[in-house]
Structure formats: structure tokens, C-alpha cells
Design goal:
It is built from 4 helices and 4 strands, in the order E-H-H-H-E-E-H-E. By secondary structure, it is of the alpha+beta class. The protein has a single domain, classed as 2-Layer Sandwich (Alpha-Beta Plaits). The chain has a 4-stranded antiparallel sheet with strand order 2-3-1-4, with helices on one face. Helix 2 runs antiparallel to helix 4. GO terms for molecular function: cyclic pyranopterin monophosphate synthase activity. It comes from Candidatus Halobonum tyrrellensis G22. InterPro entries: Mo_CF_biosynth-C_arc (IPR023047), MoaC (IPR023045), MoaC_sf (IPR036522), Mopterin_CF_biosynth-C_dom (IPR002820).
Length: 177
């Protein structure tokens, strides 16, 4: 897996291109640092991420029919996803705090899975893909937390429950008008 900077270019030190002088998250002595984006122009940005949680068919049906004892799973997961987006800078080291202007969440409940898509928008100097990813992973973790009693086997494990396929599906940047 290659490392890329926020603009999609090979990151220095990734073995693809560049030199140590091009590393963006380290200073001259190799210490971690936040990237200075102060000179970059503000642009409108949007990132969309998606992921899936695999569940028992009976659990997915209970979520779809709003019959989970802890409450409305999708409504709670939506709130968790939005909160995670807004607090990404607190959980990802060296991540900038950005002005989130919009968060859209979409759940697709299948026979044995729930797919969550999170779209994040901002206007600023840096992207919002980490926020979209945080929204997806936290939203799916909330689903797991709310259905874990139904997913446990006799030994207290979760042999068929898993979160998978978490990815950034699109990223856009456009100049402000």
C-alpha cells in the first residue's frame, strides 16, 4: 500500500518519489508535526467514504424493522457518525480542525449487512476524507454496539459480525466562486 499526501501525490519517504526533505508530517529532526496549510487558498471540498457491517439476517431484519431493544439503531448511528466527523481532529494525530459545513449519512440495510455512506463537505485549506472515514467507522461501531446482544454466540463471541470495506469512494476539490 502506498502512502500519498492529501493532494494524491506520492508522499516522500513512501518509496515512490521525493526525498526526506519532502516529508510533510515531520520536521528537520524527524519529529512529528502538523502540516502548515496557512498559505493554501480556501477551496470547497467534499469527500465520501463507505463501509459495511456484516450481521445475522435476523439482526439486519430487526434493525430494518426498528425492533432492537436498545432503540432506533440507524438514528443513533447517524448521530454517532456526525459527532465523529466533527471531532476527527481530536482523535487523529496531527489532523487539522476543519469547518465542517455539511454531513450526509445514508444507510442501506441488506439481508445480512448494513452499508453506511458518509459525505462530508467543508470550505478550507485541507481535505475532509479523514472526517468521512471517521464518520463511517464510528457509525458502524455504533450499529455493532446496539446489536451486539443479538450477534453474540453461546460463547460470547461475534463469529459472523465484522466491519469491512471501509474506503474513500470519492474526493472533490473546487475553487470558490
Amino acid at each position: 500500500m502506498s502512502e500519498r499526501d492529501e493532494e494524491g501525490s506520492p508522499a516522500a519517504g513512501s518509496g515512490e518519489a521525493g526525498s526526506d526533505a519532502d516529508l510533510t508530517h515531520t520536521d528537520e529532526s524527524g519529529d512529528a508535526r502538523m502540516v502548515d496549510v496557512g498559505e493554501k487558498p480556501d477551496t470547497a471540498r467534499r469527500a465520501v467514504a463507505r463501509g459495511t457491517i456484516r450481521l445475522r439476517e435476523s439482526t439486519a431484519r430487526a434493525v430494518r424493522d426498528d425492533e432492537v431493544g436498545k432503540g432506533n439503531v440507524l438514528a443513533t448511528a447517524r448521530v454517532g457518525a456526525v459527532q465523529a466527523v466533527k471531532h476527527t481532529w481530536e482523535t487523529i494525530p496531527l489532523c487539522h480542525q476543519i469547518p465542517v459545513t455539511n454531513v450526509d449519512t445514508e444507510f442501506a440495510v441488506g439481508d445480512d449487512r448494513i452499508t453506511l455512506t458518509v459525505a462530508v463537505e467543508t470550505t478550507g485549506k485541507t481535505g475532509c476524507e479523514m472526517e468521512a472515514l471517521e464518520g463511517v467507522t464510528t457509525g458502524l461501531n455504533v450499529v455493532w454496539d446496539m446489536v451486539k446482544a443479538a450477534e453474540k454466540d453461546d460463547d460470547g463471541g461475534y463469529p459472523g459480525t465484522r466491519i469491512e470495506g471501509v474506503e474513500v469512494v470519492s474526493k472533490e476539490k473546487r475553487a470558490l466562486e
